[in-house]
Amino acid sequence: TVETRDRLRIAIQKSGRLADPARALLASCGLSWRESRDRLFCYGEALPIDLLLVRDDDIPGLIADGVCDLGVVGRNVLREQDFERRRSGTPTAFRELRPLGFGACRLALAVPDDWTWTGPTQLEGRRIATTYPALLRDWLAGEGIQADVVTLSGSVEIAPRLGQADLICDLVSSGVTLAANQLKPVATLLESEAVLAGPASEFEGERAALAEMLLRRLDGALRTRH
Ligand code: PRP
Ligand code: ZN
Ligand code: MG
User: Fold this and answer.
1) Residues 6+ apart with CB under 8 A from 90
2) Is the pTM of this model over 0.90?
3) How far is 193 from 223, CA to CA, in rounded Å?
4) Residue ranges of domains in the chain, CATH in brackets
5) What ipTM was assigned to the predicted interfaces of this complex?
6) Which of 15, 76, 173 to mutate to test the pocket of ligand 1 (most atoms within 8 A of CB)?
7) Do 97 and 199 meet the contact criterion of CB atoms below 8 Å apart?
8) pLDDT digits (tens, 9 = 90+) for 68-111
9) Distance from Cα 37 to the centre of ligand 2, integer Å
10) Which of 102, 171, 190, 193 has most ligand 1 atoms within 8 Å of CB, for mutation?
11) Which residues have C-beta atoms less than 6 Å from ligand 1?
């Protein structure tokens, strides 16, 4: 479906770690919004750039479907969905446009505290719980390891204690969650942070000019932050 839209639409996380910094960064680019009653759609006031507040995992798909033009999402989510699309033969439809300098974390393998880590070969035949099966499978293949990937949508850290898995592959930021669950990180699969994501193809019409202006302002804002 080809939709002609003059306004730019940016998807950001509705709630969670990236929500407030994403909004603040966009506001520092001169964007402002009138709050809508349900707060899921924020109409742009200063510029014709609207916000859509969604679950972060939905952001790549919204860009792929052309429902949104841009999105602020973790590189981990973007990469995972990109790998998954490649695996299933779906064309790549989104890409990372800019790293945004907040929301730093890493996707790591974590094992029970009492394991003595000797290296990836230790994972052979083990069950690994994760929310990132495509990234994990890609890494395992690269290491030549056969392991069982147990896909969970959340609370991955509890899986070893419940006997669902032997170890996990999840995001680590401060490390507090791992420590609280008697787990320790042993290998990093991906260094992540919030990124600006956009379509794999170029924008057209009004939206091309708007996107270009926004990127210019964003680059200025990011420069003064560092
Ligand atoms: C992430 C991740 C870990 C936690 C790690 O979850 O899945 O559970 O953060 O952070 P820490 O190292 O600072 O403890 P998040 O809270 O973002 O929620 P989610 O798992 O529901 O996406
Ligand atoms: Zn999420
Ligand atoms: Mg979590």
Assistant:
1) none
2) yes
3) 17
4) 8-103+193-225 (3.40.190.10), 105-191 (3.40.190.10)
5) 0.93
6) 173
7) no
8) 999 999 999 999 999 999 999 999 899 999 999 999 999 999 99
9) 24
10) 171
11) 16-17, 154, 157, 170-177
